[in-house]
């Protein structure tokens, strides 16, 4: 039967004699059709509500990543925090998400995806309230840790809910497309939303708004989401979860604390040693487990490993830098929170516009080419940002080209990475591969939030040491560098009274901040270029080979004949 609603009947259909259905049979047929209509309408209604619930949940998750950075200078001032505290406000969320991703996926399979989804949404709303009520930086960090754990549970259930709710292929594709768009809107417009909330109300509402959204989301879940579970779900890999979490947490803690402790400090050496041992224990646990959380055999698939370099590259450079870019705009350029949020749109908006082009590149040249091209574009954007930040009078105009190109590069990279990580492995391993991809993203993000912070402080410290008198000792300069990185000008003046006499205009301090950001941009650009090269070396040749095979199949006589027959 033709798929077109107004297509003319085929020849054999026109030649068939008309069959008259008796009145009683016609009545029964009409009655059965009428009875069948409500279930179809009810199913459509439930699916619409379920899609709305999943999209709202993805919006909340994305907003919590991108709206909080723009209010960090406000939080640092109101809660009397320091630079390390601001780092942990962000990293507590990402570390908690990483910890619970694989665990809650297994729990959802065993006890019900809808049930865990409901628990995750409810806890996300409650912990968002706790974040808003926090009276100190440690309280906010603890609340963010709980919020990240509930957010990870909420995130991992979204894919499972959509896959079960939409069984039809085209409907599922449309549902996942809508979900991806809303998730991207949350990430892309989070900075301006956060800045506007602070401007018209208070920083607390950046968190409290999620409590209201959680109530609406739960209403949609109860109205539309069907329960589903996997009767053959694997047992929880407790050893793998615990050892990997300890390894990542230890490394992030080491990177954050080592500037103050020193590399040779016994505590610093203990932390990094414990982190390495925890990672070795994780490798052993996964190797010995009959049901490992990570099946390392998939890393032997070139396309998968190359795509994973893309996951790492995006979170090595683009996303962690978004945590610090609001500080650059607000402290370095003197913008308010709304103006900083608007400026950040140049960085985030291209991530929503360029994914279709990335998908076309992957279809035409293969993901092994498309992913490195996207990563190279991100690196080019970072180098242009570094060039713009070093201008005589830096501003949005000097930063705009680099921001747009970096965002375009992420848009080119993300879709090929997401599609390849699941398509490159056997179907029965797609869920595990998706979990590895998400874990790689969050782990790389957490580590590089800490690394970029350390590099920023290091660049500021280097400039201060070379431009301030030697009367200030290194410990005092280190504390000053952290205050400069946090953007707390009042604390700088109060903490170092001599600075008022040495640098009355503040030009040395301002130049130190810009120098530190230049180091961070250079690190992000070089790092993502290295990962682009690794991705190309790992999967580029395999991708070109697959593309040639696909092209030869499409141009073979048999294929052309089949295409002609299909079009008849």
UniProtKB/TrEMBL annotation:
What is the official name of this protein in its record? Multidrug resistance protein MdtD
Query: What ranges does the record give for the region Disordered, renumbered to this chain?
Result: 1-34
Q: Does the keyword ATP-binding apply?
A: no
Any GO molecular function: transmembrane transporter activity
The entry's localization annotation reads: Membrane
Gene name per UniProt: mdtD_2
Positions with biased composition (Polar residues): 22-32
Pfam families in the record: MFS_1
Transmembrane as a keyword?
yes
Keywords on record: Membrane, Transmembrane, Transmembrane helix
**Principal subcellular localisation of the protein:** membrane
- What transmembrane ranges does the database entry give? 49-72, 92-109, 116-135, 141-163, 175-199, 205-224, 236-255, 267-285, 306-327, 333-353, 365-385, 391-412, 442-464, 517-538
- Cited InterPro entries: MFS, MFS_dom, MFS_trans_sf, Sugar_transporter_CS
Membrane topology designation: Multi-pass membrane protein
Q: Which domain of life is it from?
A: Bacteria
Report the PROSITE patterns cross-referenced here: MFS, SUGAR_TRANSPORT_1
One GO cellular component assignment for this chain's record is:
membrane
Q: Where is the composition biased (Basic and acidic residues)?
A: 9-18
Q: Which source organism does the UniProt entry give?
A: Paraburkholderia fynbosensis
Q: Where is the Major facilitator superfamily (MFS) profile domain?
A: 50-542
């Amino acid at each position: 039967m033709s798929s077109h609603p107004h297509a003319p009947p085929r020849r054999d259909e026109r030649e068939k004699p008309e069959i008259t259905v008796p009145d009683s049979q016609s009545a029964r047929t009409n009655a059965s059709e009428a009875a069948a209509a409500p279930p179809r309408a009810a199913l459509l209604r439930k699916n619409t509500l379920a899609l709305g619930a999943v999209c709202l949940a993805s919006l909340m998750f994305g907003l919590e990543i991108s709206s909080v950075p723009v209010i960090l200078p406000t939080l640092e001032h109101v809660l009397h925090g320091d630079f390390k505290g601001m780092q942990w406000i962000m990293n507590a969320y990402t570390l908690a998400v990483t910890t619970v991703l694989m665990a809650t996926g297994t729990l959802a399979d065993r006890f019900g995806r809808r049930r865990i989804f409901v628990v995750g949404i409810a806890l996300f709303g409650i912990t968002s309230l706790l974040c808003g009520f926090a009276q100190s930086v440690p309280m906010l960090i603890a609340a963010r840790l709980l919020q990240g754990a509930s957010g990870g549970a909420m995130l991992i259930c979204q894919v499972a809910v959509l896959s079960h709710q939409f069984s039809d292929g085209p409907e599922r594709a449309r549902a996942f497309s809508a979900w991806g768009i809303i998730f991207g809107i949350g990430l892309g417009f989070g900075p301006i939303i956060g800045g506007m909330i602070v401007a018209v109300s208070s920083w607390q509402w950046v968190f409290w708004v999620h409590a209201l959204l959680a109530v609406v989301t739960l209403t949609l879940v109860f109205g539309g989401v069907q329960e589903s579970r996997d009767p053959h779900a694997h047992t929880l890999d407790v050893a793998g979860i615990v050892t990997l979490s300890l390894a990542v947490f230890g490394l992030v803690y080491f990177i954050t604390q080592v500037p103050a402790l020193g590399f040779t400090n016994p505590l610093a050496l203990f932390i990094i040693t414990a982190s390495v041992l925890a990672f070795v224990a994780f490798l052993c646990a996964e190797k010995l487990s009959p049901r490992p959380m990570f099946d390392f055999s998939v890393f032997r698939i070139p396309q998968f490993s190359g795509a994973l370099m893309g996951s790492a590259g995006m979170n090595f450079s683009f996303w962690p830098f978004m945590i610090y870019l609001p500080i650059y705009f607000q402290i370095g350029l003197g913008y308010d929170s709304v103006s900083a949020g608007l400026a950040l749109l140049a960085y985030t908006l291209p991530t929503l516009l360029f994914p279709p082009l990335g998908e076309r590149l992957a279809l035409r040249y293969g993901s092994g080419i498309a992913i490195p091209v996207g990563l190279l574009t991100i690196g080019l954007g970072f180098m242009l940002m570094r060039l713009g930040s070093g201008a005589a009078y830096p501003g949005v105009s000097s930063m705009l080209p680099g921001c747009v190109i970096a965002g375009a590069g992420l848009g080119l990279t993300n879709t090929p990475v997401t599609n390849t990580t699941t398509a490159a492995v056997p179907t029965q391993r797609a869920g595990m591969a998706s979990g590895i991809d998400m874990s790689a993203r969050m782990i790389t993000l957490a580590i590089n939030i800490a690394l970029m912070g350390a590099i920023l402080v290091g660049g500021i410290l280097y400039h201060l040491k070379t431009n301030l008198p030697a009367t200030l000792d290194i410990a005092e300069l280190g504390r000053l560098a952290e205050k400069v990185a946090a953007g707390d000008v009042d604390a700088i003046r109060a903490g170092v009274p001599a600075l008022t006499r040495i640098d009355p205009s503040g030009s040395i301090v301002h130049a130190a901040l810009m120098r530190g950001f230049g180091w961070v941009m250079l690190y992000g650009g070089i790092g993502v270029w290295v990962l682009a090269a690794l991705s190309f070396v790992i999967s580029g040749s395999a991708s070109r080979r697959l593309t040639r095979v696909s092209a030869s199949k499409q141009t073979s006589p048999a294929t052309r004949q089949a295409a002609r027959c299909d079009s008849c």
